[in-house]
């Protein structure tokens, strides 16, 4: 059985007592939202930050990207940005990209829905995924 990371939420007051900042513990390490993003991206070759989940996308753009990823038989990690408001806001700063979904391959931002769909229509998305060994082989029937 694989080793799973156990996250614990913790709240800290900063110098301004009116502002409470949430951190997640990984073991003894305190991680800010930016550190969590970097950890997520470094831990997985393909990461999709989206609204909702692959089974239940909560916006049309996320749904379109999921459909393209499924057509490519992609292996990827997804992050539902509605489940972590700090990551949702910090990712905009980290990526300099204001909208969702956001697809990353090898820690690099590929883009949002329009870019991903354009790459998919040209067959380039499949090549990017294959280059990082994140395509599930078609089963022989």
Q: Could you name the key traits of this structure?
A:
7 strands; 5 helices; 3-stranded antiparallel sheet; Glutaredoxin; 141 residues
CATH class: Alpha Beta
CATH homologous group name: Glutaredoxin
Number of helices: 5
Looking across the biggest beta sheet, what order are the strands in?
5-4-6-7
The helix fraction, in percent, is 25-40%
Low-confidence stretches: 1-29
Gyration radius (Cα, Å) is 17 Å
Descriptive report:
The chain is of the alpha+beta class and 141 residues long. It has a single domain, classed as Glutaredoxin. It is 36% helix and 24% strand. It has a 4-stranded mixed beta sheet with strand order 5-4-6-7. A 3-stranded antiparallel beta sheet has the order 1-2-3. Helix 1 packs across helix 3 and helix 2 runs parallel beside helix 4. It is globular and about 40 Å long. The N terminus is likely disordered.
Explain the layout of strands and helices.
Elements: E1 7-13, E2 20-26, E3 29-31, H1 33-43, E4 46-50, H2 60-71, E5 77-80, H3 85-95, E6 102-105, E7 108-111, H4 113-121, H5 124-131
Parallel strand pairs: 4-5
Antiparallel strand pairs: 1-2, 2-3, 4-6, 6-7
Summarize the structure.
With 141 residues, this protein is an alpha+beta fold.
């Amino acid at each position: 059985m694989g080793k799973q990371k156990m996250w614990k939420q913790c709240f800290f007051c900063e110098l301004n007592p009116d502002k409470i900042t949430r951190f997640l513990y990984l073991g003894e390490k305190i991680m800010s939202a930016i550190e969590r993003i970097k950890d997520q991206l470094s831990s997985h070759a393909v990461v999709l930050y989206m609204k909702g989940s692959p089974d239940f996308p909560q916006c049309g753009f996320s749904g379109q990207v999921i459909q393209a990823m499924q057509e490519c038989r992609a292996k990827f990690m997804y992050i539902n940005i509605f489940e972590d408001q700090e990551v949702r806001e910090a990712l905009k700063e980290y990526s300099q990209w204001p909208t969702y979904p956001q697809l990353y391959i090898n820690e690099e931002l590929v883009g949002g829905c329009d870019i991903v769909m354009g790459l998919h229509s040209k067959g380039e998305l499949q090549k990017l995924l294959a280059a990082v060994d994140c395509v599930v082989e078609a089963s022989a029937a």
